[in-house]
Amino acid sequence: MENFIVVLLISYVIGSIPTSIIAVKLASAGDIRKFGSGNAGGTNVLRMLGWKIGVAVILFDLFKGVIATYYVPQIFWDPNPLPFNNATPFQDFTVVQIICGIVAVLGHIWTLFAGFKGGKGVATGAGMILGLAPVEFAVAMGVFAIVFLLWRYVSLGSILAAMAIPVSMFIRENLFHVDIPGYHTLVYFAIAVSMLITYTHRENIKRLLAGTENKLTHFKGTRK
């Protein structure tokens, strides 16, 4: 039980690293949460500090998810029985990976280091999916790219990309008859993640419906 709590705490702390807040403060640009959308995420950094720092923040947030999901269990988890009954088709280690990834996303959204007010969990969630289901990660990135290129809404692209993950699993398993290990458990986990990402974008959804959501057509360091 103690070891299980340790890996969850490590994953939460890794997810809690407020990358965007740190980057903006290092650039002596103030508090990212008082600028633009008020979101402590990579998109807001893109608008505030330009594409180089913005992309770096997004990639770091993505790798937080990868590290928590893929590496933390390998390094810190002892092969002991789980403190609860594993009713899934996954091995205990894979269950630990999934839980660590979820905890990292929660840490990003409710960061320990910034008054529990962080980002929306998109990049860290993407990193978690990359560590668990790379095919679905590729599909989600493709959906995001298409939506963003067509309409320039990062929020809409993020929401639809998150929704594409369980849809992709369903289509691959049921229409193309791809044998996805643990599908009947993993698909529900993917649905939960997509619902969480959608929830964190609830204000963006209101603005999208009202036609007042900001498009990312340019950012600092580029021409309009």
Question: How are the elements arranged and paired?
Answer:
Layout: H1 2-16, H2 19-26, H3 42-49, H4 51-76, H5 92-109, H6 122-132, H7 134-151, H8 154-174, H9 183-200, H10 202-210
Descriptive tags:
mainly alpha, 10 helices, globular, single chain
Describe the structure.
The protein has ten helices and no strands. The chain is an all-alpha fold and 224 residues long. The protein has one domain (2-210). It is globular and about 50 Å long. The relative contact order is 0.14. The mean pLDDT is 92.
Radius of gyration: 18 Å
Structural class designation: mainly alpha
Largest sheet: none
Amino- and carboxy-terminal Cα gap: 55 Å
Mean of residue pLDDT values: 92
Oligomer: single chain
Strand content: under 5%
Would you report the number of β strands? 0
> Residue share in helices?
55-70%
Given as residue ranges, the uncertain stretches (5+ residues, pLDDT < 50) are none
**What coarse outline follows from CA principal-axis ratios?**
globular
Number of H- or I-type helical stretches: 10
State the order of secondary-structure elements, H for helix, E for strand: HHHHHHHHHH
Number of domains: 1
